[in-house]
């Protein structure tokens, strides 16, 4: 899975090019009281191994010639009902989780035929499937409080309040801070963009399930007793939006926003076990995406979003272990590259 980075960079949203235009299109979040909006999200990415190097006790190893591919896909469909909007933030949202699911596929092939091929296939399930949640904005503490409308739902699913954008499946942060004309540009917050792209994997209580060759399902167990001594993460990036003017889509007048995004997300950890053996891992994900968003001008909400681009992955794993009186050190570096896509479609009900 793409690793959920700790997000540390934030940029203000602003329109470039001098003073705000006196006239132009207003891209604002303003759904009508009682609006019911169905939202369908799809995320997919795939990579292929481009380079792999191993070092044992300071000496490079030739290793084996391999072909390694990884694919992952997620889908989410929710129905949101809005009850009032205050200051661009909904006062209350009823969210029904209709569809949640995903698929992970891994394939490793020894091109020299000396090792047996490895294939792994996981599906993702979520306890949120079929759940309806009430989301209430607490303006004083600036968090979203959650409540389940079904008393049989596990309280842990709804107990902890969400902070900030985790409620925001409208992606309000894409909007400028005022009216815009064709050609106007503004900056976007890399932190919120990263969360938008990652939350399908990490915010929806997915459980990985191993699919065996017979088609059955074997639930993966969490390892016990594993604790990391140090975890670290980072986010670097820049992103911008440019207004392309209004256009009609499905009979709705929409503002078209061009998006250009570059994100570098990293995470690492180190661990020392009870025998004193040390393990360390680091991973970097580099995304370069372009696409467009359509914003319903009259409805005051996102209509569509399409992002496509490239994904580069660099992984490191090292360990230092003691066997009898000998200390062994191993390091492995992998580089992969592929594609990344993210799509959103909304539909007004009633």
Name the helix and strand elements from N-terminus to C-terminus, one letter apiece: EEEEEEEEEHEEHEEEEEEE
Tell how many strands the DSSP assignment holds: 18
Instruction: Tell me the number of structural domains.
Output: 1
Q: How many helices does DSSP assign?
A: 2
Question: Which features characterize this protein?
Answer:
350 residues, 59% strand, single chain, mainly beta
Verbal overview:
This protein has helices at 155-158, 190-202; strands at residues 36-56, 59-61, 66-82, 85-86, 89-90, 92-110, 118-126, 132-138, 143-148, 162-163, 185-187, 206-211, 217-219, 230-249, 252-272, 278-296, 301-323, 326-349. The longest helix has 13 residues, at 190-202. The strands form two sheets. It has a 16-stranded antiparallel beta sheet that branches. Strands 4-5 form a two-stranded antiparallel sheet. Helix content is 5%, strand content 59%. The protein has one domain. It starts with 35 loop residues before the first strand and ends with a strand. With 350 residues, it is mostly beta strands. Mean pLDDT is 81; it is low at 1-21 and 212-228. Strand 6 and strand 7 (118-126) form a beta hairpin.
């Amino acid at each position: 899975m793409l690793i959920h980075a700790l997000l540390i960079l934030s940029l203000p949203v602003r329109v470039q090019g001098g003073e705000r235009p006196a006239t132009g299109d207003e891209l604002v979040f303003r759904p009508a009281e009682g609006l019911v909006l169905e939202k369908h999200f799809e995320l997919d990415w795939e990579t292929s191994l481009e380079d792999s190097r191993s070092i044992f006790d300071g000496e490079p190893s030739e290793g084996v010639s391999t072909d390694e591919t990884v694919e992952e896909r997620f889908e989410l469909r929710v129905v949101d009902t809005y009850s009032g909007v205050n200051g661009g933030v909904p006062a209350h949202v009823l969210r029904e989780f209709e569809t949640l699911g995903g698929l992970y596929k891994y394939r490793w092939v020894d091109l020299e035929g000396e090792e047996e091929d490895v294939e792994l296939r996981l599906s993702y399930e979520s306890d949120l499937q079929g759940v309806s949640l009430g989301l209430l904005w607490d303006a004083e503490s600036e968090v979203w409080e959650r409540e389940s409308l079904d008393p049989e739902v596990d309280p842990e699913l709804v107990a902890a309040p969400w902070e900030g954008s985790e409620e925001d499946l409208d992606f309000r942060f894409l909007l400028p801070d005022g009216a815009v004309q064709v050609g106007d540009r503004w900056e976007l917050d890399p932190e919120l963009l990263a969360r938008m792209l990652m939350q399908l994997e990490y915010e929806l209580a997915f459980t990985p399930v191993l699919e065996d060759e017979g088609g059955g399902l074997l639930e993966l167990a969490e390892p016990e007793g594993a604790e990391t001594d140090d975890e670290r993460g980072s986010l670097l990036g820049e992103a911008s939006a440019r207004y392309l003017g209004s256009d009609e889509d499905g009979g709705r007048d929409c503002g078209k926003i061009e998006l250009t995004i570059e994100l570098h997300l990293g995470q690492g950890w180190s661990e020392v076990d009870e025998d004193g053996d040390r393990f360390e891992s680091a991973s970097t994900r580099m995304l370069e995406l372009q696409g467009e968003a359509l914003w319903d001008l009259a409805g005051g909400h996102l209509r569509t979003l399409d992002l496509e681009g490239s994904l580069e992955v660099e992984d490191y794993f090292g360990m230092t272990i003691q066997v009898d009186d000998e200390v062994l050190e191993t390091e492995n570096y992998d580089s992969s590259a592929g594609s990344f896509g993210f799509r959103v479609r909304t539909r007004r009900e009633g």
